[in-house]
Design goal:
This protein is mostly helical. About 65% of the residues lie in helices and about 0% in strands. The protein is built from 3 helices and no strands. It is elongated, with a radius of gyration of 12 Å. The protein starts with 8 loop residues before the first helix and ends in a 5-residue tail after the last helix.
Length: about 60
């Protein structure tokens, strides 16, 4: 299973919109119906989870 698929749906959506669709924080917030702060916090948590699951070797 892909690491991105293992994330909770909201965190996965934030990462996909921000980094795959190249949306700004504000655009992502509007698309998801949440605040910019929520987008920032969900991005940070999702990226931290991915870093933890990749381990020290990274890719």
């Amino acid at each position: 299973m892909d690491l991105l698929d293992q994330l909770p749906p909201r965190r996965r959506a934030v990462l996909v919109l921000r980094y795959c669709c190249d949306m700004s924080i504000e655009q992502t917030a509007r698309a998801l119906g949440c605040s910019a702060g929520t987008v920032k916090s969900q991005s940070a948590r999702a990226l931290a989870t991915l870093r933890d699951r990749l381990g020290p070797a990274g890719f």
